[in-house]
Structure formats: structure tokens, C-alpha cells
Amino acid sequence: MVDEDALLEQFAAQFAHDPGDLDDTAGLQDNNDVDGSEAPATFDTTAFLNGLDDIFNRHAAETEAGPYLEQAAVDAENAGDEAGLLTVLNETMGFYRSQGRHKENQWIVQRAIELALHMGLEGSEVWATTLINCATAMRAAKQYDQAEDLYAQALACAQKVYPANDRRLAALHNNLSMLYSETNRLPQAEEELSKALTIIEASSVNPQADIDVASSHTNLALVLLQEGKLEDAHTHAAQALTIYATGKLTHSAHYASALAGFAQVLYAEQRYSEAVDHYRKALAVIAECYGTDTDYYRITAENLREAEAKAGSAADTASAGDTNGNAATLNGTGSTATAAASGSVVGTADDASDSSCPISGLKLAREFFNQVGKPMIVQRYPDYAARIAAGLVGHGSECYGFDDRYSQDHDFGPRFCLWLNDEDYAAIGKQLQADYDALPRDFMVDGQGAVHFTGTADAADDSATADSPATQHLSPTTPRAQGANRRDGVFRIGEFFTSITGYAAAPVQDAPHEWLMLDEATLAAATNGAVFQDPTGDFSSVRQGFKDMPDDVRLSLISKRLGMIAQAGQYNLPRSLKRGDGAAAWLSINEFVNATASLVFLINKPLIVGYLPYYKWQFAALRKLSGSMFALLPDICEQLETVMRLSSAACFGGAGFGEGGKGAAPAADSIANTVEHIADEIVKELQREGLTTSSEAFLEWQRPYVEEHIQSNNPVLRSL
User: Fold this and answer.
1) Which CA distances in Å does 647 have to 127, 317, 569, 589?
2) Where are the annotated segments for Disordered (predicted)?
3) Of 25, 95, 155, 575, which one has the greatest count of Cβ atoms within 10 A?
């Protein structure tokens, strides 16, 4: 068999510029002054990235991407735009890696590091990003010593500058796992992948339909296969394919990685005919997305031929596989598929970056259940333990994974929810609630971040050392978290969701009027958090129902958001500013921002990314989504924050106030340009999604095109 070193990672890593991809220097400034005034255009980084996206979207990378990148580097260099040049170099590294142009890439790596140092970026997020890209390029070139050194530097930087809940840390663990795998350090590779999978699953709104989770399962399957853990490898490889099917993600280029990974496992199991089938499907995806003149295609095609030969031999001898009792394996199975490897990875809800006690609410809840709650249930309710669901979902900052030291001054402490069906609740609900209320809640967190609860076998000794943290106690409980509004304890499944949404279960798919009465913040509260166990699947089934917004409803809401963006942002905002009505302009900006943020989540599909939460966490959620490797419209969050930052000067700056003393006019002009730029990006995304054939920039006129895709004739779904 052909050596599969770096088989999947080089191509599943998306050598095109991808939303949140690590081949990105989004933290750099372009040639626009920060006060909104524009310097003469030289090198347009946004236009460059959009052009590169277009090449890959048209599957023209094989012939067009190389010359495009080379010319962009010349243009940025001639313009003296160092930030733009660094962006081009990062993108070029990813493309050259995908094409096997490793010798040329070494020069790009050296140039990128020198440029970043010259720009004074050492210790920044952009520095960490550049180091990861350089390390990945060196690993692909089999320069393992240099790669490991660069990854070590990247990890040291990332741990300081990335938030603790940032998926890019999981991406780094993925990269390290590949390095360990390719240098035959398999236990370390498995450990790094397990860390990455834990982060991604904990942070995912819906792990059963999350493409990053699927990629991590494929990665882990291939390492387990190398370790000879065939049964575990099969489980993870199959789970990856299930996620692609559940999330309706089989159109993704990364689907090829999962198909080829599962084929590799099937080959090892001597199920050659099934391996052939999956290799053929993988090849079809590779050809469409990456072309046939790539290492990825050639290696997969060679493995297909080997599997076909084995399948033919097995048929000739009426044998299911080799007869020596050893599972057949592909030669050189050292690679791990990694759609997440070179992309950003959104953070885990189990970690908080600025916590008064070094633990987030979700992690505390999980540990409280595992150490205290679950043993109590098993001991006192053995006949029901296999029917009780547990987790933390609903209202509260920790349920969104956004809690910090400021949100831990009330309603914070060890807590979880127990969800029972009606029959079990009638039998044990009252007593189970009493036992839950009696659980010990004092806890300590040691220097390694481990949680220890008083009264448990592994509780830390309060007097062990001077460095031991003091026992943590519950923060004050507010009335809004008590009584009928309580946020934890024992619940009937239906009553729990009724308390949040007014519905015991999600409205049926053909009841759009009911769906439209549920605002996104309500749906976010009903579907956030984490489920620690659900043996019967009853709770998860109801929760999933609320995530599965009918597509007609989603399209109807997209149309409504387009209308508000046009009305508030493109029409009323500039008119209000011209007539000097700052208050009206301010409110127009608010409506514009809310509608645009909602649109981003709707375009990315709530089933996959969840819903936009209520205003307090709106931008925290939007930043998190925008940092995801596969986010659509990833740049809009930053642009919305720019609009908000400039709004004070634009609405109330007057002639001599505002940012830099330049008054309202420059800020107003910058806001107007940003609004139109956002509208242009939205139109391009609608076109890419096939929701419009129009290039009309005024978004009100895009609504009929979107509504053409609504299948139902129910008038509630359509505009007048």
C-alpha cells in the first residue's frame, strides 16, 4: 500500500481560507484608520480573501490558486502592507501544504516568522496562529524536529493569549497528535486527541451534528487503529459518519476524510468490499472539492486499488479475509484526518477564563454529579438509575459556558438537573428532590484544577498545605432562581421544558405559527448546557426537537431579518443621521445589530450551532460562533462591534466631539460603509447557499428570492 503519512490532514484541513481557519490573521489592522477614516487603498486584504474563497468555492484551486497567491504576495509587498502580506503568507502555507509543495513552503515558513517578528507580533494571537501554520507545514514536509519546536512555542503562546474556552486549543492538540502519530508516539497521540475531543464535545451545542466532533472521532479512530485497538477504532470511525448524516453535512469536503478513515478501519477488519465502497465515495468527494491532481486523490486511489485487489482475492477464495488470524492493515497508517487541525476550534463550556474560583459552572456541575450525585442515585435508587437523565440546561450564565468571576456572585455553586418521566417522577420525585437538597455542596479546587467535594472519598484535606485552596461555599441564591423558577433539582421532563418555553415538547414541524412565537433566546435557553447522562434518551429527544427548527421557519426568519437590516441599517439609520436625530439613529443601530446577529445564527443553522441567546450573551455567543472553523459570515461579528463602537460619535458626536475630536461625520461615514459591506457579504452568502440569484445590495429586495424556497403555503411564513 502507498504510505498514508499525512493522508487526510493535509486536505481535510481546508487549504482554502476558511472562517476561523488558522491560516488567518484576523487580528491585524488593514489600511483603514481605527477612527473610521480611510487611508488611500493599497492592498485590500478582505478582497484578497474573498477572491481566494471564490476560487475554492468554484473548485478551481488546482489551476488558479497558486498564481493568485503569488500575485497577491507581490501586490502586498509593493504596497508596503505587512499585515496583508502576512495574511497572504499564512494562506499560501496552507495551499502549498495541500499540494505537496513542501520545499517551496519552507521559504514561506521562514518569511512568515521573520515578518511576524519584524511586526512585533510575538506573544500575540496572530503569533500563535502563524506558529501553528508554520509547524503544520513543517510536519507535512516531515521536518519533525522543527515542527515539534514550533508547536511547543505555539502552545506556550496559545495558553497565554487564547481564552480558556477557545477551540483553537483543541486544534493545537489535534496537530500535536498528528506529530506524535507520525513519529510513532501513539499513546501521546491518543492522549492529545482525547483532550481535543473533550473540548469540542463540551463546547458543542449539538455534538451529534457537529462537524468538528466528527473530525475528531475520525482522528481518534485512526490512531486507535495504529495501536491495534480495532473495536474502539471502528466505534469512533462509525460515529463520525453518523454525525455527518445526522447533521446533513455530507456536502462538506471534510466528509471525504470520514469516508476514507472508515474505509481504512474496514480494510483492517478484512471487510474489503465495504472498504472499496467507502473509498470510492471518498474519491468522488475529493475529486469534486480538491481535484484529481493531488496527493490526497492519488493516495486514496492507490488504497482503493489495494482494497479492490483484496476484495477480488477474497471472492475468488470464498474467504472473508486473511487466514492467518491477523487483521490486515494499510501500510503507513500514521495520519489522522483533521478538519479541526488547522482550523479554529471554539472553546469548551467547561472552562472559564476569568473565574474567582478556577472552574466554570458547567465543569463544576459535571463533577458535582459524578462525585456526589451519581453515587447517591445508584445507592438509593438502583431500580431507577438507568432511567434518570442528568445535566445542566436552562437559564444561567454557566449553561451557556460564559460564566466568569462577575457572574459567580449569585446563584453560583454546585448544581445539576435530574429529569424523570412522569411515572418515575410520581414514584420517587419528591424523595429524590429531598435527597438532592441534602447533598454536600462545599468543594475545593486543587492546583491541577481537580474538584473535591466535602464528604466524598477523594475530598482534599483542608489542612494539607498552605497552598491548598480554601473551601468554596455557595453564593447567595436570588428569588428568581427559587420556587417555580428554580434552575436545578428534580424535574418532570415535560414540565422542565414548559417552564422555559411554554411547551412540554417542541411544536410539530407543520405548525409554523407556534414556532414563530418562540423567540430565539427562549430556544437558546432550552437547548444550551450539557447532558451528562440520558440512559433512555427521552430528555435528549425532547431537547433535540427544540433544536430542529423547521427549515421553512428558518427561511421565514431569514427573510424578516433581511427586511429589518434593510429598514433599520440601510434606510432609517443614514436618514436619521442626516436629519440630526441621534436618538433615532441610535435605536436604528440597535435594531440593525440585533437583526444581523440573528441572521448569522440562522444562516449557520440552529440545528448545528444553536440559537442566538438573549442580549447579555449575544456577542459572547456571536464571537464564539465566528471563531468556529466552519462558520458562515465569520467577519460580521467584528464589523458589528465596530458599528457599535462608533455609534456614540456618529449619533451624538457633534462637530468637534467623538473619536479623536473629529466629530460625527467620519464615524457616520464609517458606519454607513460598514453597513453596506455587511449587506454585500450577506448577499454573497445567500448566493452561495442558493437562496438568491440576485446581486441587489438593498436587502429588502432579496426577501422574495429567499421566500421562493419556502415549501409551505402558510401565509404566516411570508412577507406581505
Assistant:
1) 31, 76, 12, 8
2) 460-485
3) 25
> Cα separation of 704 and 702, whole Å?
6
- Check residue 21 and give its pLDDT: 38
The Cα–Cα gap between 715 and 354 comes to: 48
Q: What span, in angstroms and rounded, lies between the C-alpha atoms of 260 and 287?
A: 13
DSSP string for 465-518: -TTSPPPB-PPPPPGGGSGGG--SEEEEHHHHHHHHHS-SSPPPTT-HHHHHHS
User: Are 530 and 579 contacting, i.e. CB atoms less than 8 angstroms apart?
Assistant: no
Q: In sequence order, which residues have a C-beta less than 8 Å from that of residue 430 and are 6 or more positions away?
A: none
Between CA 149 and CA 137 the distance in angstroms is: 13
Q: For 243-267, what is each residue's pLDDT tens digit? A: 888 888 877 778 888 999 999 999 9
Give the cell for residue 118: 519584524
Give the Cβ contact number of residue 242 at 10 Å. 15
Looking at the whole model, is its pTM more than 0.70? no
Question: What pLDDT is attached to residue 1?
Answer: 52
SS (H, E, C) 253-318: CCHHHHHHHHHHHHHHCCCHHHHHHHHHHHHHHHHHHHCCCCHHHHHHHHHHHHHHHHHHHHHHHC
Model confidence over 578-621: pLDDT tens digits? 888 999 999 999 999 999 999 999 999 888 789 999 999 999 99
Closest residue by Cα to residue 348 from 163, 152, 143: 163
Alpha-carbon distance of 692 to 562, in angstroms, equals 12
At 8 the three-state DSSP class reads coil
Extract the residue ranges of the chain whose pLDDT is less than 50: 2-41, 318-357, 457-471, 473-474, 476, 479-481, 655-662
Provide the pLDDT for residue 358: 56
The three-class DSSP label of residue 641 is helix
Cβ burial of 717 (10 Å; 0-12, 13-18, 19+) is buried
* Among candidate residues 626, 666, 667, the one with its CA nearest the CA of residue 645: 667
Give the total residue count for the chain: 720
Report pLDDT for 203.
Answer: 72
**Calpha distance 230→222 (Å, rounded):** 9
Question: Which cell goes with 653?
Answer: 458626536
The structural domains of the chain, with segments of one domain joined by +, span: 9-317, 361-546, 551-717
Cα 167 from Cα 348, distance rounded (Å): 7
Of 1.10.1060.10, 1.10.3720.10, 1.25.40.10, 1.20.1440.120, the CATH number of 9-317 is 1.25.40.10
Q: Is 125 left (phi over 0), alpha (psi -120 to 50) or beta?
A: alpha
* Residue 373 DSSP symbol: I
Residues 86, 76 contacting (CB under 8 angstroms): no
Task: Kindly state the cell numbers that stand for 328.
Answer: 490486515
Q: Within 13 Å of residue 445, how many CA atoms lie on the same side as its CB?
A: 17
Q: State residue 117's pLDDT score.
A: 87
Residue 519 in grid coordinates: 423567540
The pLDDT of residue 31: 39
Cβ density class 463-496: b for 16+ within 10 Å, e for less: eeeeebeeebeeeeeeeebeeeebbbebbbbbeb
